[in-house]
Fold this protein.
Amino acid sequence: MSDQPKSSIAPPEKRAAAMEMVLRRNSALPDGFVQEFTEHADDAWVTANGARMVARAWSEPAFRERMLADGTGAAREMGFDFPEHHRHLVVLENKPDIHNVIVCTLCSCTAYTIIGAAPDWYKDLDYRARVVRESRTVLREMGLDLPASTEIRVWDTTADTRYMVLPEQPPATEGWPAEKLAEIVTQDSMIGASRLEEVKG
Ligand code: FE
């Protein structure tokens, strides 16, 4: 037993405010930077980017090949930001008997410029710890009940490798134009928490 008070970690917004204060105090934060950065993130780093890549991959076999070979190149080809420090975007192709799911066991890294900011559950310690050990159970709890015959592959994001899942195109959407296809692609499907099978034509 110790008389030391238990350490507690402040919530993210308090920690961010503290960092901002220190940076300002040291004149390391140009005026307007936080606002401009936030606005750019809100406008440009959206789920619709990845959804458009998926829709194009479904519609255009040559783009699909390029995207699977070099996700970073495919993202930049479509004019989307992909920061240098993210290094690689690896696109994981779902198949009828193979399901890919993404996690960052260390924190909450994701290809946020392509699939949008990580959802809260993705940052949750419970998800990060359990999806690696009992992926089938965790996915079932999230509403994705995969048959035992489907192999589940779990990909752990690192500082310099970001992933996105290329979901299978729902059969009912065969022949749709890419713009319409992009509307059905969800962030969850690009993380691997759903498979879009419920989409009807
Ligand atoms: Fe992380």
